[in-house]
Description:
CATH class of the largest domain: Alpha Beta
Oligomer: single chain
Number of domains: 2
Bound molecules: 1,4-dihydronicotinamide adenine dinucleotide, magnesium ion
CATH topology of the largest domain: Isopropylmalate Dehydrogenase
Amino acid sequence: MDGAVDRSQDTHARTSLIPATLIRGDGIGPEVTGATLQVLNAVGAEFEWDEQVAGMGALEDVGTPLPDSMVESFRKTRLALKGPLTTPIGTGFRSVSVALRKEFKLYANVRPARTMVSGGRYEDVDIVLIRENTEGLYIGFETVIPVADDPRAVAQSVAIVTRAGCERVTRYAFEYALAHGRKRVTICHKANILKAVSGLFLDVAREVAAEYEGRVEADDVIIDACAMKLVMDPSAFDVIVTTNMFGDILSDLIAGLVGGLGMAPGANIGADAALFEAVHGSAPDIAGKGVANPTAMILAACMMLDHIGESERARRVRDALGATLRKGDELTPDLKGDGSTEGFTDAVCRRLD
Ligand code: NAI
Ligand code: MG
């Protein structure tokens, strides 16, 4: 698949380590990233980490949340595992995650949500959301316009999508469906109101869908109805593809269907680079308390293992994670347990087959 590295030939005989950039992140970042590295080591994953700083930590240490050395490292490795980064407020810096997605053209944000722990509203959620990651309302074309004596009288944010951008992300979604044995792709839009931006996305997505007729089913749904349907009957969805902001919102929604943000991993995929992270942020409210749920970050690392052709190790980690979640005696507070990040992670490592 686009952006994937085929190492299937040397999975068992590899002698060299795979270079990858590591960013532990802010807030709960170091806790969940530390847990993830512990699991990766336990399963024998062979990464050669180039550790870099970014975000609030980097702003304090080196004066910028987006240090050149971090960007250069990722330019070399083309592969990164990244903890959540706090976006500094009021400094003029935009989100580092958004900047990296733009700089490296990581156009597809793949966010799976699958039930792994029971007791939620639904027992059988299995949805993959694919969010366009570089265009739309998040491009940062924003202005505040003064009128008379009010310096903030009017605000505008401009959304831009391109035919090429719509095509590559929808094609990625259909290729993903084919590669992962998924039956249907649902195109999510608001073309009835946003006739230009969402209209172009829907037109292009339908053209791409037509090429996959007979191989992958396709349908489309308006974003607001989609939100309601997801909450009422998530089993009606398989793969969803949508534009940047709708995808941002819906990915937190589907995380909520499977236990919350602590359960939701994400992969940012480009033609020649990939960055893996949790959907959640730095969770300042629980940072440093040792209670963050590392599942999302560990699942992000599994997606990274899949990406480099290490699917067997990814399976072993997912199995151990699933067994630990089902057993339920080490669950972190977000999953209604009284366990810790450390206790949960140790339990996952013990269960690796
Ligand atoms: P958040 O995702 O950090 O937290 C939202 C809620 O979910 C909080 O109650 C938090 O405790 C909980 N939560 C999140 N992850 C959890 C985990 N692994 N285990 C247990 N509970 C968890 O979102 P918030 O508070 O809006 O953002 C905090 C900071 O993170 C902001 O600076 C924001 O810009 C940044 N952020 C960074 C992201 C990234 O680096 N990819 C993504 C989202 C937000
Ligand atoms: Mg988000």
